[in-house]
Transmembrane protein (Xanthomonas arboricola), 160 residues
Amino acid sequence: MWREGDVLVCTPGADLPPRCVKCNAPADISPRRYIFHWHHPAIYLALLMGVLPYLILAIVLRKRSAHVLSLCAWHERRRVRCVAIAMASIVPLLIGVLWIGGATGWLTGAGVMAVMLLIGRRGSRVLSAQSVDHEQARYLGACDAFLRALPTPPRESRDW
């Protein structure tokens, strides 16, 4: 595991140091295994054919990488809170449809639901996979202090 600028690079199955990846504080809670998925950005072109072809291609062609990493208590609470916001996002849609009714209810409920899903998704993300292959996984989202504590790239990684 090493850093390349603001990118965290890990070999398959590497466990991260027991420090919060978001603030570099000592980990207050036990480390947890996270599974990250990534697919090539060109797969988004399948959206031109519809959502279903995109979903099928994205699921079939995605790469995955699993790592054990830690968060401090504050960042873990924030992550759990954002997951709860995303899970509760169906409530505004139901309220809009059942109590307000009509097109206004649908649009209001769907709009609030979309905002809640976006907040939940962005806030619950620990790291964001930039690329994944059989040799390494590259992530964005680790704080500068965490990255500075990691070694520089191994020699063979720099000779490309």
About this structure: The radius of gyration is 19 Å. Residues 73-125 form one domain.
